Amino acid sequence: MSRRPAKGDYIETDTGNKVARKAILVGTQNIMLGGKTVIQPEVMIRGDLVRTAPSSSSSSSSSTPSSSTAVAIGRYCFLSRAVLLRPPGRLYKGVYTYMPLRLGDHVFIGQNTVVQAATVGNHVSIGRDCCVNEFAIVKDYVRILDETVVPAFMVIPSFSVVAGRPARVVGEVPEGEVEEFELREIYKSVGNNPTGG
């Protein structure tokens, strides 16, 4: 009888991603993780909502790996409990299709937040109970406060603090506070064998 290591709450990948066993990743072949990302329990990532390529013939469907990434997540991202990442979709030439959702590096997303943005930049902190609606673009070094609703197609400039329903810029991130966006320490504190920093 072989001894198997005890099952932890997280599965660790070769690139250092820590994925909770209770997370729901649908369409994993269409989800790209950059490495050192934490995905907590009850997170749902909809990789099955991928752009539908116009099919010239039904037999060539297996040979069209063109742009099949639905969700791309950068390095050192932290997805809190019950986050939903869903690619934005729209009607295009009579067909409902999805565009990729891209998260940059060092992105923190708080509990119960839904993100359907086109792009979230690097060093972004999104609070809890937020909704970042379809095709929004969040630039680098942005802080979105708790319970904020970002309207569809809104562009949030770099170094902005955003709040409200609907969201509006309420301040700016001071130059000295950019280190707060670093997520290396919080990454180390999660997992089966956390190493406190």
From TrEMBL:
Pfam families: DCTN5 (PF21711). Its main location: cytoplasm. GO terms for cellular component: dynactin complex. It is found in: Cytoplasm, Cytoskeleton. It comes from the Eukaryota. The keyword Mitochondrion does not apply. Keywords: Cytoplasm, Cytoskeleton. The keyword Nucleotidyltransferase does not apply. Belongs to the dynactin subunits 5/6 family. Dynactin subunit 5 subfamily. PANTHER family: DYNACTIN SUBUNIT 5. This is Dynactin subunit 5. The lineage of its organism: Eukaryota, Fungi, Dikarya, Ascomycota, Pezizomycotina.
